[in-house]
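Milestone M4 deliverable, item 7.
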Amino acid sequence: MDFPPLYLRKGAERRLRSGHLWVYSNEVDTRRSPLTGFAAGSQAQLRSSNDNPLGTVFVNPHALICGRLISRQATQGMTPELLTARLQTALTLRQSLFPKPFYRWVFGDSDGLSGLVIDRFDDTVVIQISTAGMEQMKTAVIEAVHGLAKPTAIILKNDGKMRKVEGLESYVEQPHGPEVTLLTVEENGVRFEVPMAGGQKTGWFYDHRMNRQRLQHYAPGKRVLDVFSYVGGWGIQAACAGASQVTCIDSSASAIESVHHNATLNGLSNVDTLEGDAFDALKSLRDEQRSFDIVVLDPPALIPRRRDQKAGEEAYARLNQLGLRLLAPDGLLVSASCSMHLSQEKLVDILRGSGRKTGRFMQLLEQGHQAPDHPVIPGIPETDYIKACFVRSLADFF
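Output delivered:
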């Protein structure tokens, strides 16, 4: 296939040659190939400043990430055939990892499908498209998903923040199957039901699956506080693993309602909830002199952008200090982060500082990562975003 050329500035190809897949607008030689000459979602042949072919890219002239590598072969564009082959490759991995069809089927760049996320909930598949290039492939995506998985229902939940950046409209639609109002999830042997309307992202966060499984080993007989609980992913699994009491905190009334629903679904009677701002709720619990054996902190990304780094790190520090002050002697803090701008090393450093601030002697027992259905590309640090630290906290130890 012949594609119009997109030229890079001198030296701009180094990051791509090292394994990255994105092209930033300030890396393009706009004198040789003006970005205004490309339509959003079109495909181009990427070439270095000395005219060597580097591959093919999706182009969006209106976005900071203006190019997303499709293939390192200069004549191979994204076709329905290539799309289907990559979906099949991604599916083969997930089927080998998990005994039941509950997983992230496609994780964007990590599966060679930049701008595409697909989550599978048994016979329901939820698709999120976040880039103009992948939006052009929407029909091919739906057809390939139907052909490979034969789901009863396919949902397009295209209402993420990235769509605005890409100049795309926000919408949710169901192109196939009977209307779905509840998503059924099974994770680590525990069942959940999540409302489609108003749900976060695709409705569930499979990325912390292995870390929630780790928590089950510590939970028996413990009083557990699940902060930013959403529909109870951490807390309900801890209760099913034998926790004596679980309290879930979330600011969303619908999420709190789902916690109770999921507790009932699993035959649990030891789960209660607090609705409200997490920081305020933690302070109130401290004022009430409440304590817990395990505190789980899994906030949304507190550092959404690089310019939020300082304020976000301060928020993580405040949060972890509040959590530590609610721990009983010899308690366990599970401190998680989904901020790609916060490194594992920095999270550990924040925990160190929080321990010193609260007078706690801390032992780092385990460090968790994202589940393998969210594979990391070594050349793309942005794909490595989930962190979880399991920290034993001892008061008056030294």
